[in-house]
Fold each of these.
Amino acid sequence: MAESAAANGQRRRPVRRREREAGGRRSNRFLVSYNDAELTIVREAAERDNQALASWVGDAALDVATEKVVPVSADTKDVLQELIQSRGQLRRIGNNLNQVAHILNADGDVTDAQIKAVLKYVQTAVRRVDEATLQLMRERRPRL
């Protein structure tokens, strides 16, 4: 078992509590139940954000309810990351195409190999963006 922070000479950061609301004291309460595995996940998230457990749960619930954040699966995060990377790749490919067009317009010589290389990058990027977009569409659920 790991030593406590006090035992090894380190001080723990004080837990940040939720700020008082302008609307007054919160007097409405309800019970939230978790199994052991779920509670471990929620506790770790609260600790990561340096918040008390109840404060973290309350803030997370309000953020989702007010659509300040929209919960997404880990797979969706991966797909979004893929789209972001693909956008950058498409931007670079667009720059390459502009260079090819500039050379062609200036009566320069562009080899078949150069054109095929650029088109290969375009096809790959478009395929990756298409796949990521389709994955997001499959996971998207309509809001009622």
Note: Helices lie at 36-48, 53-65, 74-105, 112-139.
Amino acid sequence: MSKTLIRSLLCFFVASVLIILVVSKAAASQAYIELDVKKSGHIGGQLRVSVTELQGVLNLDTDRNNQVSWKELYPHRADIEAYLITACSFSVNDLAAIPRVGEIAYGLQGDIPQVAAAVTLNGQPPILDITIDCSLSDFNLAKNPRRVNIHWPSGGSHQALLNAPLPRENFEESSAHQDNFFDFIISGVWHIWIGYDHILFLIALLIPVVLQRSASGREPVKGFGKTLLRVAVIVSAFTIAHSITLSLAVVGIVQLPPKLVESVIAASVALAALNNLRPSVAGAQGVWIALLFGLLHGFGFANVFHDVDAGDNFLSALVGFNIGVELGQFAIVAIFVPLAYLLRRTRFYRLGVVYGGSSLVALCACVWLVQRVNS
């Protein structure tokens, strides 16, 4: 094996690990404040915070295994509730408002274990403004920013990030942003770009498309048109599958536990990658994997769709979000496939990408699977 190939593989490995760590860290460090304002003055919503943050404040890992389970969280419900309602203060129409905490649930946001608490606030109608102040708490806002999403009765919304430079903000209904179809498309693009498990699943399926079967195993495909046809088959299968289950899930016809969905998605990434290690796999042979597991990926997209502030524009939001997912997917394909086609005859691609890259993807997916099953 040449020194150039070894250096290329090493760079590929380091870059992939760094990307995964950066994305995971970014997702792990964020909490959410979601409020839905009604004309009656009632404000319902949800406070979500990562278990990592709670562990740092409340020291919940009683068995010292570096994992906090629901069994360990439950006895500390009162402490968790107190932390959630004191981490940030709220004012409604310039009057202090203390959130009342309802049901508390434990689940996953992507790979990140979180605690979500239903909250209610009350104010005198009409609600004209809400102020959220996170500067009074002693927790590290630089490491634990708060993402705010407020939906107003008029259909407008506010999205903001409260962090160290901006710990306090006043939100007025008169300045609320009115979401349009284009905003929902952008949201779909963004969600697939930060969904690294979906990205790696798609890339694993696309790695063999620039190869074709031969008597000795597989060889570079002849002709870019044939490659594009194979890409179209795989991407279409994945798109059709996840569009069906995304629609069924968001309208409530079919619901699956998020933990099960995220675990199977991790398993699908590993299977797609390991399939590339078989010497006879080439072309669009992964189409059945794309079709079958694409159904599960649709439920994964549905889980993040619930973070989209659709308001009264549910159908528009669903269509726009799905279009955004497809556009984000197309961008990934447009970058990866031409590069793969240009490199298909090189030893780096045939060994480094097909075997080394697929093995790395499978390893990452197995780590995610263990984390998600044990969360």
Note: Residues 15-29 have pLDDT under 50 and may be disordered.
Amino acid sequence: MDNVTATRSIDTEEMLWQAVLQRDSAFEGLVFYGVRSTKIYCRPTCPSRKPNRDRVCFFDSVQSAEAAGYRPCKRCLPQEATLPNSNLAKVLVICRYLDSHSETIPSLAELGSSVKMSPAHLQRTFKQIMGVTPFQYADARRLDRFKQQIRHGKPIANALYHTGYGASSRLYEKAPKQLGMTPAAYQRSGRGELIRYAIVESPLGYLLVAATDRGLCSVRLGGGAAELEAELHQEFKNAQFQADDRQLQEWVQPIVNYLSGLNSLPQLPIDIQATAFQRQVWEALQAIPLGTTATYSDIADRIGQPKAVRAVARACATNPIALVIPCHRVIQKSGGLSGYRWGIDRKRELLDLEQRLSQLEVGDRASETESRD
């Protein structure tokens, strides 16, 4: 395999980028990064100033980097790196193995035999390092290939066949969760998808709630209705829009009631696109109890990727559904509120609001217990 960038999933690339940012010696000899603007490649531990992410590509060997026209860095001397014998090395071998098997997803036994690990040990080690199982990784890669083919105009039936889906039903079953729309709608870049939206005033400013027939696709807070509406149209450029306060009332009213301090937010259906890593982070956010907070490090630990703190922060910042996915409950290790897409003042008010709501719920439960006694 040559340039790793062309074949690795978003989640693997995120792991490699974190290794570069943290100069993680565990990746020594396993991966090299190239800087497109200088055509120089380095070890992940190189002491040089780190480039911008959009200028970086990854290679799995010195040979592949030089074959792509990159020169070795004179500071870290990547051509002298040696390949360590580690579980990480085996996991990266498995990633490359899964990348090359596009028609089928190999069994754990087959994967384990390729790196001399038992299936159970491989499953445990792979998930510990990657944050997902080998099957989840392979399934995400298969979906990446399918999306790439239909973006280039290949018919859906042909793309299904060439990316290893044995039956169209398998993809359509998971389409709402993984694509955020049907394969046909995705092929049209969302064109033809109807998004209903409502903009109302709330105690924290204007609130925009937008949804497809399957669930919420955008929840935003802002200072003006026109601004929020323009942002929604920019996010879903090819969709059709319909302002519809009445049909969305069953989803808008619970959010307004929550912001007014009347009750906690109930579970609402959502319809969003996400990588496997983003899904893990957002599910971890939804598991933070009302009235409590967690740090970015806590979330990274909970999803099994303790070194991915910056990636967790980025996933929080790109959360498309404010409040419903409660990214406001994540704070700095020092206790500071850090950034919030919808403003620090709103974050502070939300945390204060949730403290009051949680205390009310505790009081209600105590009253119910006393009445039963």
Note: Residues 4-84 form a domain with the DNA Methylphosphotriester Repair Domain fold (CATH 3.40.10.10).
